[in-house]
């Protein structure tokens, strides 16, 4: 079973097309879990209007951080394979099939993506090439270019990653999950462009295009490594 976990907030402009691009690739046993952060537009009514039993809509009380919204969706995932999804992208044909195939050999997959504008015009042909995205714990700990919307991973990664560290300003969902995977599991970065990653004025994340101040960057790295080591120690005590 596959669980696609999506966080939404005021995404009415693109949400229907994104959901349909995902549903077309899922079996009737799979699910899309959508956690909505109290949208004030038509996002929720559009989701309900699709009327597909594979859609599971959750309400989430806003905290100011999209990471907590994603965590809420992930807590309800029941699949053995987990995908993350933004509300405004488009999944390319065969994304699910190709990722599932790679997950036979790996625990965590980071796909490539086209970077597109509102009208799906391509701005960057290969995001992975543009940002030189590669595997490796230290490389991605120092400066990660991983994107949650390009993730697919096994349930074992999810169980290790949950719950997220409490400070979501210092531990974003994509940084945390990818570093958990790089430290403890077998990871791969794909050349295949399987997402049309939409960048527009309403995006809630920077998409890896900006950098924090040095003091904030150091604080983030310290917080992440402390929590990664603490989680590893906690897990070792259970064995």
- Estimate the mean pLDDT confidence: 94
Give the C-alpha Rg. 17 Å
CATH topology label = Spore Coat Polysaccharide Biosynthesis Protein SpsA, Chain A
| Unreliable residue runs | none
What is the CATH superfamily classification? Spore Coat Polysaccharide Biosynthesis Protein SpsA, Chain A
Number of strands: 9
Helix and strand element order: EHEHEHEEHEEHHEHHEH
Query: Overall 3D geometry?
Result: globular
Q: Structurally, how many domains make up the residues?
A: 1
Task: Please characterize this protein's 3D structure.
- The protein has 239 residues and is α/β, with parallel strands linked by helices.
- The protein has one domain: Spore Coat Polysaccharide Biosynthesis Protein SpsA, Chain A (Alpha-Beta Complex).
- Strands 1, 2, 3, 4, 5, 6, 7, 8 and 9 form a nine-stranded mixed sheet that branches.
Name some characteristics of this structure:
37% helix, 22% strand, Spore Coat Polysaccharide Biosynthesis Protein SpsA, Chain A, globular, 239 residues, alpha/beta, 9 strands
Write the layout of secondary structure elements.
Layout: E1 2-8, H1 15-23, E2 31-36, H2 43-50, E3 55-59, H3 66-75, E4 81-85, E5 90-91, H4 95-102, E6 108-116, E7 122-124, H5 127-130, H6 137-142, E8 151-154, H7 155-161, H8 173-184, E9 187-198, H9 214-238
Helix pairs in contact: 7-8
């Amino acid at each position: 079973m596959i669980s696609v976990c999506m966080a939404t907030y005021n995404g009415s402009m693109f949400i229907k097309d994104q959901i349909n691009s995902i549903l077309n690739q899922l079996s009737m046993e799979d699910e899309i879990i959508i956690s909505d952060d109290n949208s004030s537009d038509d996002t929720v009514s559009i989701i309900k209007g699709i009327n597909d039993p594979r859609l599971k809509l959750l309400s989430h009380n806003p905290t100011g951080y999209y990471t907590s919204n994603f965590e809420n969706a992930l807590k309800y995932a029941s699949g053995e394979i987990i995908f993350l999804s933004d509300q405004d992208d488009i999944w390319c044909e065969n994304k699910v099939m190709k990722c599932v195939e790679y997950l036979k050999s790996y625990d965590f997959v980071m796909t490539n993506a086209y970077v597109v504008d509102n009208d799906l015009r391509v701005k960057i042909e290969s995001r992975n090439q543009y940002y030189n995205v590669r595997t490796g714990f230290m490389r991605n700990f120092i400066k990660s270019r991983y994107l949650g919307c390009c993730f697919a991973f096994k349930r074992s990664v999810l169980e290790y990653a949950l719950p997220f560290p409490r400070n979501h300003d210092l531990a974003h969902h994509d940084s945390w999950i990818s570093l958990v995977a790089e430290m403890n599991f077998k990871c791969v970065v794909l050349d295949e462009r399987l997402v049309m990653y939409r960048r527009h004025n309403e995006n809630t994340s920077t998409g890896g295009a900006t950098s924090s101040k040095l003091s904030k960057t150091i604080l983030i790295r310290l917080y992440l490594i402390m929590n990664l080591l603490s989680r590893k120690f906690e897990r070792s005590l259970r064995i």
